[in-house]
Amino acid sequence: MRLFNTCSVASAGRRICLGFLLLFCWQQLAWAQSIPGITEPATEAKPSPAAEIIETNEADRPSDAQIKTRLTEIYANLPGLTAVSVDVNQGVILLSGTVDDSQSLKSAQELASRIAGAVTVITQISRDRTLTSRLQAALRSAETQFKDLAGNAPLLLLALIVIALAIFLARLLGKAERLFDRMAINWFVRDMLRQGLQLAILLFGVVIALKLLDATALLGSLLGAVGIVGLAIGFATRDTVENYIASMLLSMRQPFQREDHINIEGIEGKVLRLTPRATILMSLDGNHLRIPNAKVYKATITNFTRNPLRRFEFEVGVDTEVDLSLPRALAVKIVGELPGVLDSPPALCLVQKLGDSSIILKVLGWIDQRESDFLKTRSEAQQRVKEAFDEAGIIMPEPIYNVNLRRQKQITTKQTEPAESETVQSAAKAELETKLLTELETGIEAGADTQPDKAVEEQMRQERRSSADEDLLSNNAPVE
What we know:
By secondary structure, the chain is of the alpha+beta class. The protein folds into 5 domains: about 25 residues, no CATH class; about 70 residues, Histidine-containing Protein, Chain: A (2-Layer Sandwich); about 80 residues; about 70 residues, SH3 type barrels, CATH 2.30.30; about 100 residues, Alpha-Beta Plaits. The chain has 15 helices and 11 strands. The strands form 3 sheets. It has a 5-stranded antiparallel β-sheet with strand order 7-6-5-4-8. The chain has a 3-stranded mixed β-sheet with strand order 1-2-3. Helix 6 runs antiparallel to helix 8 and helix 12 packs across helix 13. The longest helix is centred in the C-terminal third of the chain and has 35 residues. It is elongated and about 140 Å long. The N terminus is likely disordered.
């Protein structure tokens, strides 16, 4: 019984669904037959959506003749479209004829597609490439632009006045020497500030002029193009720009001054001048050294002139058998009494190295570079120490090489040499003690020339007098 009831309910449900489906199809068929112009059964091919929209408003849709007349009148009033022909069939617009340029072709298509009642637009327009038509198009374009220019003449004149005023103010600012003299001491920095302010005034005038002409979009495009070009130029001239920036920084905070004796990572000389691109040195040999300022700014600079006191040093070797107290005391005495060597800090003699065949002593002394020449004093000190050691019998051995000889006689002669050397050394010790006592009482004669050598400085001064190049170094600028 339960199964029978279930089957009866299912059969009733199917009948109800079938009835609703038939009713829906009958309503759709009646609705389609009620629309004018549609007499085909629903099983036939349906029209396109565009045609369906137009067909539903057939009472309001203009006729083909009206569409053709409307488009013909529009084209007749537009320059460049007078030669376009229009044919309309069932809302399909066919355009033919010739136009002068692509812009006219695009305008004809857009106007036809926007006309009321247009189903679709078929374009068969060709461009007229004859010389006459091209000249006529150019003349029409020039005429249009001239009319626009004549209409905007007052604004254009005002924009030109604004730009001329900006140029006048920029030039007037460039002549204000006192203003820039207060802002910066160095002429290079003053010129950079002057040019930067003048450029800012000119750009401000151009922006105001473009705003008056309502051409700010052009300004944005122009600035974008200038930015891209500037970036490319910046990469191409990176070293040059880096040198100019380094020149500005070096001139604002000077690490050296004219005629300073400096060493820039192994390049030694005296400062001749600082240019916007390079630092010019004159070597101690009289040669010109040109170093890019970018390298100078990043380099480690040794300035020998900033502190007038400078220490010289040299090494001397003595025999391993010598009592070190004697040569050390003699070297300190010789160097300390040399003209130009300062008493404070005092001269020193240190044991530098214990070698296989000799002992290396380092002799040190201080001088005032304003009164004594570094190279001359060191040379004189080495000469006098060598002469004093020779007189005292202190042996300064040369490198020893062992040579094996085949003949027994030569070997025997070679073996007798150390004994003779010991005899000479014993006699030298006694002579040294006597000489030291005598020299401590009388002192060493002072006849050495240790005055500063001004040859390079004199050459530099003559070159500055004969050269017209401007120097960025100034005695009034801050010094690091």
